[in-house]
Structure formats: C-alpha cells, structure tokens
Amino acid sequence: MTDGPRCARCFPQVMEKLRNSTGCTGIVCPLQYSGTMQNSTISSREHRAVGFVLVHAGAGYHSESKAKEYKHVCKRACQKAVDRLRAGAMALEAVTAALTELEDSPFTNAGTGSNLNLSGDIECDASIMDGKSLEYGAVGALSGIKNPVLVARRLLSEAQKGKLSAGRIPPCFLVGTGAQQWALTHGIPPCPSEKMATKFSLSAYKRNKRKMELAEKIETEHHFLKRQRTSSGTVSEIVEPISSSLDTVGAIVVDQEGNVAAAVSSGGLAMKHPGRVGQAAHYGCGCWAENAHDARTYATAVSTSGCGEHLIRTMLARECSTAVQAEDAHQALLEAMQNKFIGSRFLASEDGVLGGVIVLRCCKCGDDQSSENLQALLVEFLWSHTTESMCVGYMSAHDSKAKTHISRLPPGAVAGQSLAIEGGVCRLGATND
C-alpha cells in the first residue's frame, strides 16, 4: 500500500484530534471515537491475522423493541467476516461472508424477510466491489435466489477470468429473469419467494395493500375528496402513508494486505413497482471499494443504505469514497453528506433526503514498514445517516467479539434534513499490539 501521513508515529495525535472534535454548527453531529483493539484469548495464529470489518443493518428506523435482534445479526455478520480473515481469506471473501449472514436474517430488508413488491413478490438487488481489481458485480430485481450477494460475487469472479467465447465481454450487472437464469446455470440453488417471505413481511404487505386500496378509493370519489380536503387538507392526511423499511444491509472490509472490499444488498422499497432497481445494484451508488495507489493515499470502502432513488441520483458511495481522501476524514464525510446529499442540487425538489453510509479508509503505518511488519495498518471508520437511526457493528481480527451500536438522531432533529456522524480509529498488526 502507498504510505500515507497517518502512521504509527502520529497515531496518538490522530486519536487526540478525534477526541477533541466538536462537530459543525447547524449539523447534528454526535461524534464518538474509540479504538477497537481489545485483550483476548485467541490463538497465536489468529493473533497474527490482520483485518477489520464494519457492517450495517440499514439506515431507516430501528425500534427499541427489535434493537437486540438488529445488534445480534450485526455481531454474527462481523464474526463471520473475521473468521474468514483469521483463516487467511482476502477482503472479498470476508465481505461476502458478512453479507450472506445479513441476508439470512429475517429482521433485515435483504434476502429472507425482504419487502414485497406491488405484485406480492420479492425482488432483490445486490452488488459487490473488489478494491484490488476494481471488478464489480451486481444483480437487480432478482427473484428466487436466497442470497443475491452470491450471484453478484459470482458475476465478479467470472468477469475476472476474462472474455467469453468469441471475444464477448462478460456481464457485470444482470436483472430479472436473466439474472435468475444465469445464477442457476452457475450452480447457485433456487429458493421460492414464498420461503423468503416472513410473517412480518407478509403482514406488512397486507397492511400496505389495504392503505393503497383505501387511498385509491378516496381519490376516485371526487366529491368526498373535495369535502375531506376542505376539512383535513390532503389524501395523505386521511390515509396513513405506507410504511417502507429502508434497512438495506451492507459491509466493508480491509484484509491483512490492505485490500478493501464492499458489498450491499436490499429487498427494496415496500410496494415498489415490479422491476424497480434500487441503489444496491447501481454502480457507484450502493457500494464502492478502491485500494490505495499512486494517486490515492488511502484505500477506501463504502456501503450505503436509505431511499434508493436519493442515493442513485447522488452516487453517494463513490462521492464519499472520493471525499475521505482529504486529510480529515470526519470533516470530509460531514461536508459530503451535507453538500453532496442533503443539499444536492439533484435532490432540490425533495422535502427530505434519506440515507446513510458506512465508510472505511486505511493506510500502512509509517513506523512499521519493515518486512516483518508489513501488516501494520491504520484504519479509520465512520458512519453517517440522515434517517432516524442506523444500526452498525464492527470488529477487528484481534477482537474477541464485535461491538454494535444503533446511532440515532437526537431529539428534535428532523429526519431527512439533519445528520449524525460517528466512528472510530484503530491500528492493526503493529508489533506492540
């Protein structure tokens, strides 16, 4: 990796600067930084392993009643990734393991438990990006596959093999029945949509369908509508809006060689039109990963969540990756979320802009560049959201267990107009760890 200004020699100063940060006027910014290095009883082989994972169970609304379940799935996803890192796997394999665990949880809007569309079917989006090769794989509006991220990963892997017969370019993004057929022909087993639906997703679909039918009935009854508008204002005040889970899931990883990878998966908006593809499948919108190179001081990885249309129109994942090449990652992310997202001219007509990101950047520690200590890395990780809450989990290969947190906007803050930003910093693989 390219050496950067943030090295082992300046690590204490980095921590001090982060602890003294006070945020920005006009922006909700409860900053909390903490290192992740912990004393543990893992084996000597595992102790030599280096790597870090940060996951999210979505930016949206996470009720207190389900907080335990959201945190638990984040812990399991982190553990799955770290297990792969300790076994010597690279970032791409580790991030896939984390996403598979997140998709399998019935509490997340990805894979099992995804939102149902207007037709009562489940259509999923997912993408994955390898920071080393810069290869990318994605699927959109995919039905009948339990883990969409596995199809995205296979697309990426197949593309790395080179051209197809007769010089054809291999696909990196497939949708609908074409994506499903491709998955099946490449050995990924089918899973009926009814097995991916849960009691919660089915009840939400029935509830939302009743709301739609009532709203449509009111809109066709012109005289009744006119009287109601006189007394109540609008149809949206008569009929409660459709609840829509925005909790797309994602993960970002750095491995022992400093390679980064990112992935994201989503069931999409509730009651979406069949065939709709959200940000989780779009290049530069759902996730981004790019290793350090001559023109980039830091390796960076990003995964997003929120309203897909808002994230697509701002290409938020790539914007955040570029922004945190600045010296002060926290300030750079803060400004990106404010200027490139909430204040984006591409979303000028929106009353509220809903989304969240997790961001990781790393560089080799400057004092540990001898051949015996090539694994020494300084990792900074952040999350930010404009939604009411965002659930995250993180863990290094040195840690005995993952840490989890549900970040929330403070009382009085308006979702879609304010943001929260938090994070941490840690050094991995140094001789004195």
From TrEMBL:
One BP term from GO: cartilage development
GO terms of molecular function: threonine-type endopeptidase activity
Active-site residues, Swiss-Prot/TrEMBL: T248 (nucleophile)
Site, Cleavage: residue positions: D247, T248
SUPFAM superfamilies given in the database record: N-terminal nucleophile aminohydrolases (Ntn hydrolases)
Domain of life according to the entry: Eukaryota
Alphabetically ordered keywords of this record: Hydrolase, Protease, Zymogen
A cellular-component GO term for this protein: cytosol
Similarity annotation: Belongs to the Ntn-hydrolase family.
Subunit structure: Intramolecular proteolysis generates 2 subunits, alpha and beta, which reassemble through a non-covalent association to form the fully active enzyme.
Protein name: Threonine aspartase 1
Organism, as annotated: Pygocentrus nattereri
Upper classification of the organism: Eukaryota, Metazoa, Chordata, Craniata, Vertebrata
Name of the gene: TASP1
